[in-house]
Amino acid sequence: MIHVLSQCSATIRKFLQGLDYFAYEGSTAFEELSELLNQYANLFTDESLVKLQDKLKNAKLYLCISR
To answer: In the 8-state DSSP scheme, what is residue 42?
Structure first.
């Protein structure tokens, strides 16, 4: 029984490491989208640019909290 439990805990640790990597990649994606918005800021009004940046931040926060 102890052998089975020790094997399961190792599997869980590996799985959690994968989640951390997945979360990091998702966070990086939001940062890249924000940078793209800044690069193309001349295509938007100041008001719409601020709204889009806020929506990106809210989406990132929502996904981080709900995982």
So the answer is: G
